[in-house]
Amino acid sequence: MNILFSANISTKLQTQLKEEYPDQSFLFFKNIEEAEDDLHKADILVTYGADLNETLIKKAKRLQWIMVLSAGIDQLPSHIIQEKNIMVTNARGIHKIPMAEYAISMLLQVYRKEKTLIQREKEQIWERSVTIQEITGRTMLILGTGSIGQEVARLAKAFQMTTYGISRSGKPAKYFDETYPVDQLEHLLPHGDFVISVLPSTAETKGLLTYDHFKKMPRHTVFLNMGRGDLVTSDHLLKAVQNEEIFHAVLDVFEEEPLPKDHPFWYEERITITPHLSGVTSMYQLRALNIFKQNLKAYIEGTNRYINKIDFAKGY
Predict the structure, then answer these.
(1) Measured CA angle at 296 (ends 92, 77), to 5 deg
(2) Which end of the chain is more exposed for a tag (fewer CB within 10 A), N or C?
(3) Where are the alpha helices (DSSP H) in 134-221?
(4) With contact defined as beta carbons under 8 Å apart, do 198 and 144 qualify?
(5) Which residues pair with 271 in a beta bridge?
(6) pLDDT by residue, tens only, the chain of 316 residues
(7) For the whole model, what pTM was predicted?
(8) Phi-psi region of 305 (alpha: psi -120 to 50; beta: other; left: phi over 0)
(9) DSSP 71
(10) Which DSSP string do the residues of 257-303 spell out, in sequence order?
């Protein structure tokens, strides 16, 4: 069986895979361009997902399973994958620790005016008049109550926050004081000191937030999006910030990535931009490959006990 990697993983992890599965044939490449000529050999493809298109999938005539080393599948050529009946699994769940830490760190960054303090340090300015706020005791509204949302809520509890969750079903979830279905979103927005989105990109979530939603938030709200950039259009969000409907926006995901250099978001003092890295740390590949190895065991044994098997009808 040929297992082809178009995801560039460390030499150490490559060696571990070969030692753990000596009966399997591994083909390691740094990217899809290097891997393209060998795609026809692949029974299993391990990728970050964004490098695939319909033409490449058609070249992989033996392909039975795609393991995506990320949570997002919205960039996959899903039509041809379903047509060829190729199984897809992803690394959903591995991002909860780094993304929850990111969320808390960014809220602290905004409330403790760290941008201002760092700039004054660079300019050797000793000035103690900066107004610093505390995140403790605030109310957090989290859009998405899966593993990432629950971990964000868990850390929020360390700061004695009230946590509300929004999901498709509205079912109770750990670390949330209350959870509600999406149709209750507008009723909850006025209570959100912090509004955090970890939602994936699906037909239901695209364009979910509009300018009217931001108008319902308190003017001191910090909005943080680390789910998917198509949750809200750039124009609506920019208008909300410029009209001071919210206090600050922290954005790790965007409608267009990389964010163009001339995009107006770059010039807004009350927008913090990070380059889609909230879920990436030195532990990323190890955690993702642990899921892959569990699924590979199931694949070899034919047990069908797969973790994170994708249902394209749901979009995750």
Answers:
(1) 55
(2) N
(3) 147-157, 185-188, 211-216
(4) yes
(5) 249
(6) 999 999 999 999 999 999 999 999 999 999 999 999 999 999 999 999 989 999 999 999 999 999 999 888 888 999 999 999 999 999 999 999 999 999 999 999 999 999 999 999 999 999 999 999 999 999 999 999 999 999 999 999 999 999 999 999 999 999 999 999 999 999 999 999 999 999 999 999 999 999 999 999 999 999 999 999 999 999 999 999 999 999 999 999 999 999 999 999 999 999 999 999 999 999 999 999 999 999 999 999 999 899 999 998 777 7
(7) 0.88
(8) beta
(9) S
(10) SSPPTT-GGGG-TTEEE--S-TT--TTHHHHHHHHHHHHHHHHHHT-
Written as six digits, the tokens of 10 are 């460390």
Residue ranges of domains in the chain, CATH in brackets: 2-93+282-301 (3.40.50.720), 96-273 (3.40.50.720)
- The tokens of 219 are what? 């003017």
SS (H, E, C) 53-98: CHHHHHHCCCCCEEEECCCCCCCCCHHHHHHCCCEEEECCCCCHHH
Q: 299 CB contacts (<8 Å, ≥6 apart)? A: 44, 65, 306
**Amino acid (one-letter) located at 26:** F
Peptide bond into 258 cis (omega under 30): yes
